[in-house]
Amino acid sequence: MYARQKHIALTLLALLCCALSTMAQKKVYVRGYVIDEQKHALDLVDVLQLGTSNGTITNEQGYYELQCTCTDSITLRFSFIGYETVTRTFAPGSQLSINLSVTLPSASNELSELEVRSYQRNENTMLKIDTKQLQLVPDASGGGVEGLIKLQGGVSSHNELSSQYSVRGGSYDENCIYVNGIEIYRPLLIRSGQQEGMSFINSDMVESVNFSAGGFSAQYGDKMSSVLDVTYKKPEKFEASVSASLLGATAYIGSKSKRFTQIHGFRYHTSQYLLGSLDTKGSYDTWFLDYQTYMTLALSQHWSLEFLGNISQNTYRFRPSTTDVSFGTTSMARNLTIYYDGQERDRFRTMTGALGLRYQLTPNTSFVWSVSAFNTNELENYDIIGEYLLSELSYDENGNMTTGEELGTGTYHQHARNRLSATVANVSLKADMKVGATRMLAGVSYQREMITDRIQEWERRDSADYSLPYDPNAVQLSYNLTSAVQLTTSRLQGYIEDTYRYEGDKLTWNFNGGIRLNYWSFNKNILFSPRFSIALLPHWKHDMTFRLAAGLYCQAPFYKEIRKTVTDPDGNNFIELNHDVDAQKSINVLFGYDYYFRLWNRPFKFSTEAYYKYGYDIISYSVDNMQVRYSGENDAIANTMGIDFKLFGEFVPGTDSWISFSLMRSKEDLLNDHYKVYSNTGAFLGDVYPGAISRPNEQRYSVSIFFQDYLPNHPEYRMYLKFIWADGLPFGPPNSQRYEAVFRSDPYRRVDIGFSRGFMKGREKFMTRQNVVQSWWINLEIFNLLNIKNENSYYWFSDIYGNQYAAPNYLTGIMPNLKIVVNF
User: Which of 645-673 are b and which e, b meaning 16 or more Cβ less than 10 Å from the residue's Cβ?
Assistant: First the structure.
């Protein structure tokens, strides 16, 4: 009997030891927020599990997350300079995840500097974009940074294959992009998202991103709509990452020695997989390859060198076979079938290099001399013949849609042999000086531009056995364009701006004022662009910020804007450079308001920006897919007004998400545009002046959402969602007058979603056996989750009577993508 009881006791003791061992190995996640008595988030608060060396610090939102070894009870200590130390003890029990938020009482009354640091109130029109999750956010174009920019208020994009975007009614060419202070240029012949490849910005190399949709200061160039300011990393230690997916692969490596830092990035991207979902079937052979580097060398205590380099090549080869697209309404449904012969072969090769010499005179005074150059060589060749059949669609007795009566047939032949080479070289000197509450920035630059352009393209159309336009005595082309241009020009640019911060008893205000100067040898124009902004931070209400910005933004033309099409008596079109073209000018006024608050004990910010832009000396343009064609003349005035709303915050603890809603009205009035009206008998009735019409990028409304989430007890399982619902854009027949763009495409609607599973060192047992891989992720991305057919451009075809029909060119459908990311 005693032996049996002893055996039972030993068994229970063994089971207890196993239970205790299991509990000792069990992990519990503790997460929450640390705030002060005014409910302001506190960052850099030390969070320590007592009795261990396990600890962490809070981020800018006061959020922390700590993995603790499970015991009977866990005690956490929260400490921060200027605040009382707080400890919290709790019993985890069987819980795997615990939310624990604390309030730190003030240890003294002198906390104003600490509050400002943790509050992060915005004092200018630049918006800081969080880039921590760029590797995991789904993006069909592979851009990463631009994918998040497109979700900001006032930003419009209707093509997931392109990284380009429009801001508050402006064209794609009205956005300035800087990387480490160097202005970035794009290829000039791009006409579709399929051709584009990837943008310059390598998201693996990014340290910070700042974006302004208007009201930016004088240091940020001469564009009229927006500025994107990107800074690349200076690594503190060795770091590296690789990724691979069905859309390509990337590799990144960075290191630091005593005086030298370097980062290198390689990218390979192909859209061949995505293009397979288009209505136009065929053989797609597309690839983009680039290499980038950013290196710094400390020569001495005061002198340092910086180098930014890039070389890329984008190749697009396409041999179409068929297009089958249905469109129209249920009462008037149509089907367009096109059979192709021919191919397109394009190549875009770009190089960028920038060398900077920095002199740090004092901790608050620095000078930077820089030399940079950009070169692009672009080839665009295509010969494509298409035979189309337009048919009526009807429903049979079973409710199935069938092809009915043939409505028209025809043939078209598109031909192009285009060559463009451009080099932009720049030498600049910039100064940055801070004295007390004043900071002054100044800069001067000289730029040389050399462009060679050869264009030879034409199109012939045939409908019902007649060549269009119809001429019984000759074969006419429906469109032709020839160019042989060689251009060399110089620009001289300069700016000076001053920022002054004043802290009074009742409010703090931040004033920025500056002016830009620009001279271009092509048209001998001297431009002055004054700008100012004021931010008011009331002390009686620490959760509000008010902003006012205004300025005259003068966008000096680049090559595309000065090209004017002229027609000779035989109907041949030529490119002529217009030396009388002036810079486009826009008077911008912006009022902004930020309201900071806490909801569910988490930080949120509600922002509103109302704006008005009056433009004169505007160069009108039309958009086809991603190609912008300018009139080459200052032939319009424009006005744009709108309002943007954005709710930003931690809808899920520790993650940033937002909802943006925008309303806009953008109109332009072409000067002296009119047409004559005649009666049925041929009598002249008078001239009609169309007046104000919608601008090509007038997006009257848009809603965008970016949302992050994770499983509460398993933060290694994450989800990212991007949602866009935006108004369609105006369009009209090709090669027509601007006032004929009276149609509007359907709304652009798209949902992209990504699911990630992460394996982090310190959380996964098998990861602790090695010291090379810090984390790796498996991502499942689903592009266009709802499989909505979005319209991007249109096929236009005519009959002998000149009637034109438009069939939509749809973008990509639903497509899954698998991606693996490894961080070293």
Answer: bbbbbbbbbbbbbbbbbbbbebbbbbeeb
